[in-house]
Amino acid sequence: MSTKDTKKTSVTASVRPMIAPKHIVRVTTDADRRSVITAARAVISEHRDVIKALAKR
After folding, report:
1. pTM score, two decimals?
2. Are 36 and 25 within 8 A, CB to CB?
3. Which residues neighbour 22 within 8 Å (Cβ) at sequence distance 6 or greater?
């Protein structure tokens, strides 16, 4: 087995999913929660747009 094959199958514990919070945000009210969710969705959408634009190059 080559080194290349081994690297494909190895998974480290420090790997996070592509979209996951690096720092957990704690909110007290439902309105704050909605604001955080709205902002997070906007950022994710912008990131998707950038990725799509880069993929077209």
Report:
1. 0.52
2. yes
3. 16
Separation of alpha carbons 55 and 53, rounded Å: 5
pLDDT value at 46 more than 60:
yes
Helix (H) or strand (E) segment spanning residue 35: helix 30-56
Residue 50: the pLDDT is 92
- 4-17 as b/e: b if 16+ CB within 10 A: eeeeeeeeeeeeee
Tracing tokens 């720092």 back to the chain, one arrives at 23
C-alpha span between 2 and 33 (Å, rounded): 48
Paired tokens of 31: 């309105």
